[in-house]
Amino acid sequence: MSGFQEFYELLPREKALALLEPYLRPVDGAEEVPLEAALGRVLAAEVAAPEPLPAFARSTVDGYAVRARDTFGASEGQPALLTLAGQVNMGEVVERSLGAGEAVQVFTGGALPPGADAVVMFEHTGEGGSLLEVFHPVAPGENAVRPGEDFAAGNALLPGGRRLRPADLGALAALGLTRVTVRRRPRVGILSTGDEVVPATERPRPGQVRDVNSHVLAGFVREAGGEPELGGIVPDDREALAGRVAALLPRVDLLLLSGGSSTGARDHTLAVINSLGPPGVVVHGLALKPGKPTVIGVAGRKLIFGLPGHPAAAAVAFRAVVRPALLALGGAPSQAGLQVSARLAVNLPSASGREEFVRVRLVSRPDGWWAEPVEGPSGFLSTFVRSDGFVVIPLEATGLEAGAEVAVELD
Fold this sequence. Notes:
By secondary structure, this protein is an alpha/beta fold. The protein has helices at 13-20, 166-174, 213-223, 238-248, 269-275, 311-329, 381-386, and strands spanning 30-34, 47-48, 58-59, 63-66, 80-87, 102-106, 118-121, 125-128, 131-134, 144-145, 156-158, 179-183, 187-193, 197-198, 209-210, 227-234, 254-258, 279-284, 288-289, 295-299, 302-307, 339-344, 348-349, 355-365, 368-373, 389-393, 399-400, 405-410. The protein is elongated.
């Protein structure tokens, strides 16, 4: 490969992802894991509730279990008078049915005795010996839940393809489901390229830099539900890169190459991807800033992404195109990252025809959150570390004005 390679038509990320859609099928394989290892995993199939939740009628407040009709017409001036018939302790089940005109003391989450269909809150009552004064009527079902009202037995609890959250683990545990079947995590190979790149464990000589991207990308892969496999560092040599790719590709579902994606004469990513057979390179350049020199190829049905060498630019390219692809391979729906609404502190100019990702930090002021750009070249790690996330300037826009409401996508 000699001279410089011109970029093909720069594609917006939506068009690039549309080209990849035929290759974004969930990977095969599933495994059963315990709940303590299930956070963030993707359910392989729908999970149904094996039993009702709650399993018994229970109170949602501290108060007195009653028959609602015994409280009708009660008021401050003319309270309903009920006979106190005991107390239900937490974890206790009462077999005796509640009789007409009776009340039983219960606590939040406690079981209701048979015959009770509502609960009067403590603050709406007064005690006088063996009698209970009720100053406020309750309707049937008030301050109580019926068996199966939360989840009915046999009904869907969680849909297949759901990425499990802490609350989901709680629902599974409440129903005694301590093991779940989840999709296999997509395996993602990561190679760093460049004669100047050395392992992070080594002290670089003048002109060398430590390998940052392997660790940044591995973190992003884990956050997106993948399993990274670090393939090490490859020098700027086409044969060396081709050999390492050929060895790693069969073991993974997706491959990331960082560096070697720009127009430099020593960049061999394009040639290596095309040498793997059709369709080869399908995207050469994205309408992104930073992240323009991103290359996307397909070998068989496996995606290969050539990402920029600068960590901040590689991070933008990952968020824009790799993350949605990885979520799809893992069987999870594509989803935006966590966002915070803020106002822009300064004008942000941009060139129309490219989607620009501007790193910002969030500053709390008396009138709300403000987004302040973190200045510095895309190759600076300090801009990456000092920022909380980024603001996206749309493809067709020529900038954003100070004071504009923006969505900050958090790292």
